[in-house]
Amino acid sequence: MKSLLLRALLVLICVAGSVQVSAKNEKGLVGAIKVETPKRPKGQKDVLLLIAPKLDTVRVGFIGVGNRGISAVERWTKIPGAKITAICDLRPELVERAQNTVVKAGMPKAATYDTDENAWKQLCQRDDVDLVYIVTDWIPHAEMARFAMECGKHAVIEVPAAMSMDEIWMLIDTSEKTRKHCMMLENCIYDQFELTALNMTQKGLFGEILNVQGGYIHHLFDRNWPIGKRDWRITYNKLHRGDLYPTHGLGPICQLLNIHRGDRIKTLVSMDTKAVEGSLVWKAMGKADPENFKNGDHTMTFMRTEKGKSILIEHNVMTPRPYNRKYQLTGSRGYANKYPVEEFCFAKEVIANEPEFKGVKINEHDAIPEGIQKVLMEKYMHPIWKELQDVAKKVGGHGGMDYIMDYRLVYCLRNGLPLDMDVYDLAEWCCVVELSRLSIENGCAPVEVPDFTRGAWDKIEGYSHAMAE
Length: 469
What we know:
Layout: H1 2-16, E1 24-25, E2 28-29, E3 33-34, E4 58-63, H2 67-76, E5 82-88, H3 92-104, E6 111-113, H4 120-124, E7 131-134, H5 141-150, E8 154-157, H6 165-178, E9 182-184, H7 192-202, E10 209-217, H8 231-239, H9 247-256, E11 265-272, H10 277-284, E12 299-305, E13 310-316, E14 328-331, E15 334-337, E16 343-346, H11 348-352, H12 370-379, H13 383-395, H14 401-415, H15 423-430, H16 432-440, E17 447-448
Parallel strand pairs: 3-17, 4-5, 4-7, 5-6, 7-8, 8-9, 10-13
Antiparallel strand pairs: 1-2, 10-14, 11-12, 11-17, 12-13, 14-15, 15-16
Helix pairs in contact: 5-6, 6-15, 13-14
């Protein structure tokens, strides 16, 4: 009886947010909020390392050709083996602009849809579309991807791809049922620094990775925000609490940690500040009810993996700060940091094993000299970046990483290879949106993160990029 009463008391204290309880029972962390994992529907199996039939030409249909969408259209006109066959947007002038981009590139005119808010469904049903590329605002992402897969198309979705656990499980189940790829368009995993650090990690330079950090610090809103510009995004922040945009920070570091490829995120705890700038921006836009702005100006989410690694993700789109994705890794034998300056620190024996630096004195509490860093960055440049960097920088898109993202997508589809990201990556990187809210609204209580692979998280040993060779 005393044991039961003590356990109940611990649960109450944890949910109240005043104490972090670390005791465990047979089901996991005492006091943690358990998020149910729905049973896999009968007849389905996981889509780890999913391979689809090769496509000689990847015929793509775009839903949404605004700011991000038109950039994607421009990139796709320069990717070998790609063909733009359909374009859809609610704004005819944007469809016309995208069509002109296609024609100017010497491609045949694409079919266009701009007269009906449900016209995107017609695009998904076309026989000459293999891949649906979704670049709308966040709200319809998951439903569009579900419908596309049920129409027999692969679906790729701008970030974040899903805003709730229901949407995440819907996409997982639909991908497993249809055996179609469902990938989130997370471009930051292709950044030069992130790719190089990943390669160095896989070569063992950092030892065992222990802690990783990431985030999205980007001042998107201010008090002079014009009414009608990005209203959907500020509105979402008004109505929802938590880290609403976690994937740019979380994506690259999950690859470092081999998430669902030998490890998995097990628990998270989130906390936020009050909404100061958010409320003022909302008020300055002439909107009603500014005092009930839900999203805090700054959100932090702490995570722990099955194998004892720790993660910190931050989100702040409200206050004036330099852009920062907070990318940082700490290993047993080294350290890497991208912002505000790129720097590395290594144990002495790591540098001693690099033949170029024999005899160089290195302090383990200082960043390595800039000259050595430059040589290491060149030596350990990821093969994908090394191969594509010239054309990627020329085509552009966040320094070239957008082009590499699209190129790799087409490359894998044409060669019948697993994609660089799968639907479980989508799930793990997007689940922070709802689970961070759940933690914050329950006094910063720990939340158990579901195993989206339903038991297959350690079936693969380590993250890797598939290559045709």
